[in-house]
Design goal:
The complex is a heterotrimer of chains A (about 350), B (about 350) and C (about 325). Chain A has about 350 residues and is of the alpha/beta class. Chain A has helices spanning about 45-55, 80-85, 110-120, 125-140, 145-150, 160-170, 190-205, 215-220, 240-245, 250-260, 325-335, 340-345, and strands at about 5-15, 20-30, 35-40, 65-70, 75, 90-95, 175-180, 210-215, 225-230, 235-240, 310, 315-320. Chain B has a domain at about 5-105 and about 230-350: Rossmann fold, CATH 3.40.50. Chain B has helices at about 5-10, 70-80, 100-105, 130-140, 145-160, 175-185, 205-220, 235-240, 255-260, 265-275, 280-285, 315-320, 345-350, and strands at about 20-35, 40-55, 60-65, 85-90, 95, 110-115, 195, 225-230, 240-245, 250-255, 325-330, 335. In chain B, the strands form 2 sheets. An 8-stranded mixed sheet of chain B has the order 6-7-8-3-9-10-12-11, sandwiched between helices. Classes of the chains: A alpha/beta (about 350), B alpha/beta (about 350), C mainly alpha (about 325). Chains in contact: A-B, A-C, B-C.
């Protein structure tokens, strides 16, 4: 049984401008000890879906949540607020993007760590909790933990603070750790340190991880499976190797072709994705990606593709109306460095799959 | 400091030839003062601590480094938004380091800047047309009725914005479009030089490529010289002809882009490249990730001799006592290091050491 | 920190010197006024004027006079003499100080006890009926002039003339004695004045705290606190209110500093013999020494409270270090 199973999750926010469909039918699974990467840009819904797993979306007040989230067999959406509180920071933990603003500036980090323990284990003495805090600080690589445990957040550098956040998240041995853009605000060398730490801890403690990011490089290093999100939906879902070697969705192609890469020849032209991320209030008709897709056909403006298995495989899903053979051919051209227009011209576009 | 080395060994001269900017021993210190009653200087932040380089006409020159390395300060010094503490900056042959405010204004027609945050660098109370047209207003150009509007709309078209949106406000545009507005504004006076300070860091990945391509196209069409500052090594590699790597206020390596990324010499450069996550699972698994110990030291109290020695895995005694000079190393890179990386070490760690053909 | 405090105290002395000099300049050397006449107050006799001139050495140059004044002030704590009331200014001030202290601190307690909970609850129940009602009431109290509130309070609740006689009214404050010597009379007499003076402050603090708390609750560390699984009460109070309350300390110090210089309107309405009344009467009677004395005392309290606030802030916010 999977550790986390999200099925057809929908999170709609009622606002003055209309209903924001932040998450509009998302499904994914995370197995024990495995790492799932959720890749998407702003407005893809990647953060909101994880915040909902944590039960934090309930605090927003104007959220309409439907679907199902099963954690260890338990339906989280049906759980009470108190049940969710017990899970948070205990069985499921989350770390966020900006470590400076994520720690309370007025309390010592030791106190904040102890707080995380005693929120769930009230009978643990302060002294024992403090020892555990020092142990965790050492585990995440903070030098002189016995001394630093009494320091304030502003006395640490960015990388150290993120380590503190990781220590805080893992202090109660959670089964699942959700990391929402944990390295985006950090310098490149520090980012490498933090990713290395997360990877190491994942294997040592056998924690499942959901890594949310826009950086394809990060998911290439740290994850096992990848879900690509666009406009509140998962548009492609497969294991890591497949996504990079044989992606099937034009958005994934676009992402892979538009980023400059240290391992590609230098002069290679970047191929941007035209247009911009869609509004979540007025989603485009039909396929949400169609306004930006270089391979759009008339039918795509009407029909909304479902996330379905790629022909002949059980571990690769994609939401695209193009015929599988068409997609394969297009990718061959794109991966060879051709521009989308040329690829489109070169590949006979059969009838789209309904 | 071997000035000649910088000038002659950074690869073959570009077709355009001559030098637009010459920077020599540029220093910028920000003093840390005591309390208001007792105004002694307690120390200083050596944001830029003796930087020397040239920028050739028509090239794209990259400044790369992590936070606190001084790249943004250097950019602002070049633009004379800040006054150097000491050192010289020559623009088009003319010394600009000591210019007074009224002398700087005409200089602004020759050099313009694009900023990082498209959300805060545009005045939200002005229309796009006013923002782009402001340089004209300041320098008394295109005064005729309708003349200015036409000039602005032409610029909007050049950067890929719809000229009909002349009267819209910044908040009605997306991040990528706002950055285009910034570019249009920078182009208005037809400057020779554009300094782009992290122009795409705040943008979504799929939009970054749009703006980067725009800058590249404009540079080619208009013959601009571009100084590109970023922390994202992949972006810098893609955009720049020559790159300088900065650490704690000093340039630690400078080379042609191809050379730098395939054969970095300074261990810090190697570590930077090693740290970049690569969007290729196979390569990611085999490449050795060089992790640096600890954090970047504070710029108020940089380590003695080689500033990088506290984190360098190749550091030895001499690195703590004798500051390495910027000198040509194997392959043509100028680097400041006693124990530069060998080709074998580079191959282990650096993904760009063997760029593959598109898979 | 210690050097910081010492430095600030030195600054305080400097500032008080400057203020004393400026007030001296204004009151003693205005070209249109004869200092002796001014000092003598209204309808003086010629003998009085002459004797004043002599005593005060008005034939001396002005800076000598100022230095003499300063000498008296610093070494003998002598604020001068009120010819109007025939008593030393210092005596008047210290006589009136207890009443002002009682009024100011008492009101402070009331407005904190009311304003802070209301601010917190309004923020928690943002948008609901209780929030709207509280903020509406706050608006009314802020808009209402304090003397109007005072008169309405007397009209409603004063024992002698009120509709619902509950509390001692105007003039209930004893002319002799203070809260220290005669609490049984003073405390009931102060209840209405405390409430009236506290009203607009409570309203301001409630609105301010509500705004602050709402902003703080959308900070990232609140999200972290929830993500840790803390109970909502701990999130709101230990994390939220703890942050939101620190700016309150700053304005509290400033408000208190100003009030300690005398809450003229409240003292007038309720006939409380405080420093505010003293200053008001002295201005009306052109009793310059007294006016000057009250100005210096007022300045002293404001500067002192500013220092206290800064020091307390450093304890509350560890990022601030002197």
């Amino acid at each position: 049984m999977a550790l986390l199973e999200v099925r057809d999750l929908k999170v709609h926010f009622k606002t003055d401008d209309g209903i924001v469909k932040a998450v509009d039918g998302v499904s994914y699974t995370v197995d024990r000890g495995r790492a799932l990467g959720i890749v998407g840009e702003s407005g893809s819904g990647k953060s909101v879906s994880s915040l909902t797993v944590m039960g934090l979306t309930r605090f927003a007040g104007n959220a309409d949540i439907s679907g199902s989230i099963l954690f260890d067999g338990r339906d989280l959406l049906a759980a009470s607020d108190e049940d969710m509180r017990e899970l948070r920071g205990n069985d499921i933990a989350m770390i966020f993007q900006d470590p400076l603003s994520s720690l309370h500036p007025f309390y010592r980090i030791g106190d904040q760590l102890v707080e995380a323990i005693r929120a769930h284990k009230e009978d643990v003495s302060k002294a024992a909790a403090r020892d555990r805090a020092i142990e965790m600080l050492g585990l995440v690589g903070i030098p002189e933990p016995r001394r630093r445990v009494d320091a304030y957040p502003h006395e640490f550098s960015g990388g150290m603070r993120q380590r503190v956040m990781i220590a805080m998240a893992l202090i109660n041995d959670p089964k699942l750790l959700i990391a929402d853009e944990p390295t985006t605000a950090l310098d490149v060398t520090v980012q490498a340190q933090i990713l290395d730490l997360i990877e190491r801890l994942q294997h040592e403690l056998d924690t499942a991880i959901v890594m949310i990011t826009h950086d394809l490089g990060v998911v290439a290093e740290v994850t096992d499976d990848i879900a690509v999100m666009y406009a509140g939906r998962v548009v492609e879902y497969a294991d890591k190797e497949t996504i990079f070697v044989g992606p099937e969705h034009p958005y994934t192609w676009g992402l892979l072709r538009s980023i400059p890469r240290l391992d590609s020849p230098r002069g290679e032209e970047l191929v941007p994705i035209d247009g911009r991320p869609p509004s979540l209030i007025t989603r485009p008709s039909g396929c949400a990606f169609h306004p930006r897709c270089p391979f759009v056909r008339e039918a795509h403006t009407r029909i909304d593709p479902k996330l379905e298995p790629v022909a002949g495989r059980t571990d690769h899903d994609v939401a695209c109306l193009l015929a599988p053979q068409t997609r394969n051919d297009l990718w061959q051209h794109l991966a060879a460095g051709e521009a989308p227009e040329r690829a489109r011209a070169a590949v006979p576009m059969g009838e789209s799959a309904e | 400091m071997s000035v000649d080395a910088t000038r002659q060994d950074t690869g073959q001269a570009a077709a355009q030839g001559d030098t637009l900017i010459e920077v020599r021993d540029l220093v910028k210190e920000f003093p840390i003062k005591g309390s208001y009653l007792v105004r002694r200087q307690l120390g200083a932040v050596h944001a830029v601590d003796g930087v020397t380089f040239d920028v050739r006409r028509g090239e794209t020159f990259g400044l790369v480094g992590e936070s606190g390395c001084g790249k943004s300060t250097t950019a602002r010094l070049l633009m004379r938004l800040l006054q150097p503490t000491s050192g010289s900056v020559r623009f088009d042959g003319r010394e600009i380091a000591n210019l007074k405010a009224n002398e700087i204004k005409p200089l602004r027609r020759e050099m313009q800047m694009i900023f990082q945050d498209p959300y805060s660098s545009l005045n939200p109370r002005r229309t796009v047309g006013t923002i782009i047209g402001e340089p004209f207003a300041i320098h008394g150009m295109h005064e005729g009725k309708g003349d200015r509007k036409r000039a602005v709309q032409e610029l909007m078209d050049t950067v890929g914005l719809n000229p009909e949106h002349y009267n819209r406000y910044p908040h009605e545009f997306s991040g990528g479009q706002r950055q285009r507005i910034g570019v249009a504004r920078a182009l208005a006076l037809k400057p020779q030089l554009i300094v782009a300070d992290e122009p795409v860091s705040a943008l979504d990945v799929s939009i970054q490529a749009q703006v980067l391509n725009l800058l590249r196209d404009l540079q080619r069409e208009l013959g601009l010289t571009l100084i590109f500052i970023a922390h994202d090594l992949s972006v810098v590699r893609h955009m720049c002809d020559r790159v300088a790597v900065m650490y704690l206020g000093k340039i630690v390596e400078l080379a042609e882009s191809d050379q730098l990324y395939s054969h970095p010499r300074m261990p810090y450069t190697g570590a930077l490249m090693s740290a970049v996550p690569v969007a290729d699972p196979e390569l990611a698994a085999t490449k050795k990730r060089q992790l640096l110990a600890g954090d970047v030291p504070s710029p108020t109290n940089p380590p003695p001799a080689c500033r990088f020695h506290t984190r360098c895995w190749k550091a030895q005694e001499i690195c703590r006592t004798e500051e390495p000079q910027l000198e040509p190393k194997e392959g043509g890179n100028i680097a400041a290091c006693h124990f530069p990386l060998t080709d074998a070490e580079v191959a282990e760690r650096v993904p760009s050491a063997h760029p593959q053909e598109s898979a | 920190m210690l050097t910081f405090i010492v430095r600030r105290l030195l600054w305080m002395v400097v500032l008080l010197l400057v203020i004393s000099f400026l007030t001296y300049l204004i009151f003693y050397t205005l070209p249109s006024a004869d200092p002796a006449l001014l000092r003598a107050g209204r309808q003086p006799t010629p003998e009085l004027i002459a004797s004043i001139r002599e005593t005060l050495g008005l034939d001396q140059p002005w800076y000598v006079q100022y230095l003499k004044y300063l000498e008296r002030l610093v070494f003998h704590f002598d604020f001068g003499y009120s010819y109007q009331n025939n008593v030393s200014v210092r005596e008047q001030i210290f006589d009136r100080l207890p009443a002002t202290l009682t009024l100011a601190f008492g009101a402070m307690v009331v407005w904190l006890l009311v304003g802070i909970p209301v601010g917190i609850i309004s923020a928690i129940r943002r948008g609901r009926a209780s929030d709207r009602f509280a903020m509406g009431a706050a608006l009314v109290l802020i808009s209402a002039p304090v003397y109007w509130l005072g008169l309405v309070a007397l009209y409603l609740f004063s024992k002698d003339i009120g509709r619902i006689p509950l509390l001692p009214g105007q003039g209930a404050y004893p002319s002799q004695g203070s809260i220290f010597s005669d609490p049984a009379t003073v405390i009931p007499a102060m209840i209405l004045p405390w409430c009236v003076l506290a009203a607009s402050f409570a309203a301001i603090y409630a609105r301010f705290l509500r705004g602050n708390l709402l902003e703080v609750m959308s900070e990232d560390y609140i999200r972290t606190a929830r993500a840790k699984g803390l109970r909502e009460r701990a999130v709101v109070f230990k994390h939220g209110v703890r942050s939101a309350i620190t700016p309150i300390v700053t304005i509290l110090g400033l408000d208190l500093g100003i009030l300690l210089g005398g809450a003229i309107l409240t003292e007038t309405v309720f006939n409380i013999p405080g420093i505010g009344r003293l200053a008001f009467d002295a201005i009306q009677k052109s009793d310059m020494p007294t006016v000057q004395g009250t100005v210096i005392i007022g300045a002293f309290f404001i500067i002192l409270l500013n220092l206290v606030v800064d020091v307390v802030y450093a304890f509350l916010d560890p990022r601030v270090r002197y």
